[in-house]
Amino acid sequence: MVSPAQRRELVAFFEESMQLSERLSCELAGLSRSVRRYESRREPDVELRVELKKLASQRRASAIDVLAFCCAAARGRQPTTSVAHLPRRGSRRAAQEAQARAAAPRETRLS
Fold first, then answer.
1. What is the arithmetic mean of pLDDT over 29-33?
2. What is the mean pLDDT of the chain?
3. What is the predicted pLDDT for the residue at 42?
4. Number of independent structural domains in the chain
5. HEC readout, the chain
6. Which of 10, 26, 82, 105 has the fewest CB within 10 Å, making it most exposed?
7. How large is the average pLDDT for residues 7-32?
8. Cα(17)–Cα(29) distance, integer angstroms
9. CA–CA separation, 111 vs 80, rounded Å?
10. Roughly what angle, to the nearest 10 degrees, separates helices 22-29 and 4-17?
11. What is the distance between the alpha carbons of residues 29 and 24, in angstroms, rounded to a whole number?
């Protein structure tokens, strides 16, 4: 699969080396012109991304909330949410909650 960034490079190649128009270059590359012109406004928080990748490799079964909690704690920030209520994957509590959900009667909708 070709990423939009790679397609943008292809469009630039068509425009510069072959002197094609933007419209034709985008059509040949299979890229819409709005995607070609898109510029992200988000700041690239490189340090946070490195920390998240490191934590994700250590805790493969963890949810994103747990990773965000650990990152905030590692940076000395107050976490925005508590993850104490989240059961660990594969824990006895998680298994009990899954059994309780399966055994609970389902609501029937009368319309």
1. 95
2. 78
3. 79
4. 2
5. CCCHHHHHHHHHHHHHHCCCCHHHHHHHHCCCHHHHHCCCCCCCCHHHHHHHHHHHHHCCCCCHHHHHHHHHHHCCCCCCCCCCCCCCCCCHHHHHHHHHHHHCCCCCCCC
6. 105
7. 95
8. 14
9. 40
10. 140
11. 9
Instruction: Decide if pLDDT at 37 tops 90.
Output: yes
Rounded CA separation 59/69 (Å): 13
| C-alpha distances in Å from residue 52, one per residue of 64, 67, 71 | 9, 7, 7
> In terms of pLDDT, which residue wins out, 109 or 72?
72
| Residue 64 covered by a domain | yes
N- to C-terminal Cα distance for the chain? 46
Q: Are residues 90 and 62 in the same domain?
A: yes
The pLDDT score that the predictor gives to residue 29 is 95
